[in-house]
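hiii, so i know i said id send this last week but things got crazy w the move. better late than never?? heres the sequnce for the chain we talked about at the cafe, plus the structure i predicted for it. fair warning i was half asleep when i ran it
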Amino acid sequence: MVATTDNYIQTFRSAIARIFHANGTVVGVGFLVAGRTRNYILTCAHVVTSALSLAEDILEAPNNDIYLDFPLIASGQQLKAKVVFWQPVVSNASTSEPEDIAGLQIEGQLPKETQATQLIKANNIWQHPFRIFGFPNGHNDGVWATGVLRDGQGKGWVQLEDSKVTGYRIEPGFSGAPIWDETLVGVVGMAVAAEKRREDIKTAFMIPADVLIEAWDEIGLSISSHAHIQNIPSRVQQLK
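okay and structure toks below
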């Protein structure tokens, strides 16, 4: 069967995970990706520390249970997961090492509708429209936000911009969410931070797919082969 854009989008939706604190509060997002031997949840390290009420910059991977579900296909069907990959938040702004990335291994059976989404490594994404699903304060069922992709900056992250007047923008509650590129029809990164110093600036940042895969080569199988890459010409707040 020939895959269509709708098929890819449905896979993307099915892969989105909602991550909870033990008290039931939603703390962020993750998404299902393919590893060499199993599927994993990819999210931000600071989402994990928020879920566990731990210091944000702990160096060792936590071993506590993380609770999550897949709200767009199996809302309320909670699963447990453990951290199996850990790149902690780095306080040293001069480092060039990938940071704030966590991989989770789910315990138990995934809902049958879930599918691992694929990552697209792309350099030329300026002005590509994107969509993202997250859980800002007061919206535990989730909301969609849209915007346009910009380009990379010195930290290795890629800038995102909300260019519209109305609708939601990326803010705390979107951390760990996959960024869906409408032009390339796939996930090009993971939301990690948003501008915090100026409320009039609707800018956020993602960790691009190539950095995610460089950090954790176990998920190299998540690289998509369907996209046609086109040549089209700070202080921040974590989104927990």
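btw The helical segments are 5-15, 45-51, 71-74, 209-215. thought thatd interest u
miss u guys!!
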